[in-house]
Amino acid sequence: MWRPSFVHLERRPAFVRDWTRRFWQGSTDHRGTPGAPGRVVTLISDRGARCFGTAYRIAAADRSEVLDHLDWREKGGYARHRVTLHLADGGPAIRDGLVYVATEDNPNYLGPAPLAAIAAQVLGSHGPSGSNVEYVRELAVALRAMDARDDHVFGLERAMARSVQVPASDGR
Question: What is the reported pTM?
């Protein structure tokens, strides 16, 4: 959402129905390392939910190159999944949208955990693409910019803030 890293013609706030975002996927190649995996998002089926994100329109001439890039970027356990994208501004639905979903059967899948445990893992993870903290914070900023609610992302952000230890004042 906040750093697409591919050429696109247009980007618009959108949502998918019956999916929700969770920090249940391990990242050993972008936001962590094999010895200290970060936590990144995947989508999980959740009847009645709406998950907000960004829809990118790609030129037909760029399609193959962009998909090759995304397949490489999401190689750590994600698979393409076709969805209907609903534009947040009420524009016509995009019936052939594409998202990447990490499922339980991939080797980097970490699954659910208490937010405090996820926060501790995020705070301690850094990989070739940057810190795991940056990933969470920038995702939260992007969601707020589109006025989207995501209790899991914002709850993780709060749990991370609570986990950061501020040195006690020594009275000077």
Answer: 0.91
